[in-house]
Amino acid sequence: MKTKLGTPAFFCIVALLSGCTPGDVPAPHAKEPAEEVDPGRPAQTAVPPSAQHALGRADTDIAATTSWDAEVRRMPKEDAAYLQAIKERYFGAVAYENEQERRQLEDAGFPSMEEWRQTRMMSDSELQRWAETGDGKAMAFYVDRMMERAAPYLHLRGADDAAYNASPGAGYVLKAYAYSTQVQFAHRSPFTGYLLGAVFSTLAYPQSPESAAAGMMAARDAGDPRAEALLAAYGARHPDMNQETVLAAHRAMKIPE
Fold first, then answer.
1. What's the CA gap between 104 and 195, in Å, rounded?
2. Is 28 helix (H, G, I), strand (E, B) or coil?
3. CA-closest candidate to residue 238, choices 211, 209, 212, 201
């Protein structure tokens, strides 16, 4: 499956969800990012593409009956930092308090801790090839990687737009946006709501808390009973959100049943 990045409808969706004007959206001819080697990422281990859907299942099924935070505290420093960043990126929604909640989240389509750790060892190109098969969870992991790759360049926006547009970051943002509009239909999980909220809040310029709130509402509608409390806590931290923008973004982020 090939991703069409330049359609007018795609850019309309981006403008609506991110709260940006068409000029804020990376140009279709943005520089294609080269494969980056992250010195903090563990060495690559080969995982056959045909087995990707089973990532993490064997290990998580025998995981100790503890919380996400307790598991993270037992990890090596680099793994712990990576998983903490994942938790923060998704508003705490990936974390669980006990074994029962862990299983419920995995059954609902949330990536497991072991899946996060294993896909971290995959290269960008491997993740993209997996996403191109149409696997919804693969698309989610690829979108997350593109957000991670884009992060070091986002500070350039508004300060040096020419440098930003010439940087790999513009291409990473473009790919994250493109796949996010597909994962909404390919991975019908409450996690997708949080993913969309993260994409369109952190990659927008200026950043859009309204999009984060809309993603939590989409996750709530898709069946996550914790979303209401997460939304209330987030709203308390961002009391000046434009509610009309929240509702418009929510309509666009709804996950098909």
1. 18
2. coil
3. 209
User: Could you tell me the two tokens for 59?
Assistant: 């290990």
- State the Cα–Cα distance between residues 7 and 254, nearest whole angstrom: 21
Query: How many residues in total does the chain contain?
Result: 257
Phi, psi for 45 (deg, rounded to 5): -120, 135
b/e for 9-27, b at 16 or more Cβ within 10 A? Answer: ebbebbbbbbbbeeebbbe
Calculate the CA dihedral of residues 164, 82, 186, 44 and round it to 10 degrees: 90
Distance, in Å, from the CA atom of 69 to the CA atom of 239, rounded to the nearest integer, reads 28
Cα angle, residue 201 at apex, residues 154 and 223 outer, rounded to 5°:
145
Q: Sign of dihedral through CA atoms 14, 145, 142, 217?
A: negative
The sign one gets for the Cα dihedral 188, 1, 130, 6 is: negative
pLDDT in tens, 179-189: 998 999 999 99
Q: What is d(CA 210, CA 197) in angstroms, rounded to the nearest whole number?
A: 9
Q: Report the SS3 class of residue 182.
A: helix
- Detail the DSSP E strand segments found in the chain: none
Proportion of the chain above pLDDT 70, given as a percent: 75
Q: Tens of pLDDT along 55-105?
A: 544 444 434 558 999 999 999 999 999 999 999 999 999 999 999 999 999
Question: DSSP states of 45-80 as a string?
Answer: ----GGGGGGTTHHHHHT--S--HHHHHHTS-HHHH
User: pLDDT tens digit string along 211-221?
Assistant: 999 999 999 99
